[in-house]
Amino acid sequence: MAINGIAFPEISYGGMKFQTALYVEVNARSIYIPAITIVVSAMAVSLFPALKAAFVTPAEAMRTH
């Protein structure tokens, strides 16, 4: 971006200088653990409504709502 006229100097805060580039590491753990957590959470949250709906007869559900 400095070529186009916008300079990105080093960021300083409280006398400490920080890099302007961020380096990331993507590995299997950073993908699978959040995915498994979301799936397990969704299953746990949907369990109670599913069990409640499983034991309601259709006629009773139509009468109530």
From TrEMBL:
UniProt KW keywords: Membrane, Transmembrane, Transmembrane helix
Positions of transmembrane segments: 31-55
Protein's name according to its UniProt entry: ABC3 transporter permease protein domain-containing protein
Native source species: marine metagenome
